[in-house]
Amino acid sequence: MAYRRTPAVQERLDALRTRMIDSATGLVAVHGYGGCSISAVAAGAGVGTGTVYRHFASKGELFAEVFRIVCSREVNAAVTAGEAARAEDGRCVAAVSAAVGTFAQRALRAPTLAYALLVEPVDPQVDTERLLFRESLRDALAVAIAGAIEAGEIPVQDATVTAACIVGAIGEALVLPLARGAVDPTILPLLHAFTLRSLGSPT
């Protein structure tokens, strides 16, 4: 008869896995991807290195999960901000601008983590999650852009292409400040203006 884990055992395993992921997330936020190791993750989680490897076959697998979780959180924060801005302003254009601004603000508040998410050299497994992250952010912006087109707020255009260009601009605008760990106060208004110009919005 195959062994079946009891709910209590599964709960403990899930909690342990979460602890290791939290440890890895905290480490990459401070040291970047290159400055993290499985032994450091294990120490932070209060377990042995072998325990980490029983849950994750490699550093790439562990940090792919970290990137998946963190990237999802960042996209959700941008979308939530966009929805709130649209509800207050009444325009889909406001949703796009707020989403871009929120993403950039959060990145600048956590430069080491954002640099790791956006541009730091990583293992192929992690890079796959990075590409999915960019696609997810692009698709979220495209939904708001399509809404703005339908509402007649901006000219007819390919919402997905425009969204991809904006995502690319975000990365390029942030890469140097993030690498330096310095906050440039001019970036946010410039990104706001670029976003509106990209959309063809009059305001």
Please sum up the structure shown.
The chain is mainly alpha-helical and 203 residues long. The chain has helices at residues 7-31, 38-45, 49-55, 59-89, 92-109, 111-118, 124-150, 159-180, 187-199.
Question: Can you describe this structure?
Answer:
This protein has nine helices and no strands. α5 packs across α6 and α8 packs antiparallel against α9. The mean pLDDT is 91. The longest helix has 31 residues, at 59-89. It is mainly α and 203 residues long.
Summarize the SSE layout with pairings.
Layout (H helix, E strand, L loop, with lengths): L6 H25 L6 H8 L3 H7 L3 H31 L2 H18 L1 H8 L5 H27 L8 H22 L6 H13 L4
Helix pairs in contact: 1-2, 1-4, 1-6, 2-3, 4-5, 4-7, 5-6, 5-7, 5-8, 5-9, 6-8, 7-8, 8-9
Which labels suit this protein?
elongated, single chain, 0% strand, 203 residues, mainly alpha
Q: Approximately how much helix is present in the residues?
A: over 70%
- Low-confidence parts: none
Give the biggest sheet.
none
Number of DSSP strand runs: 0
Structural class determined from secondary elements? mainly alpha
Form type: elongated
Provide mean pLDDT, rounded.
91
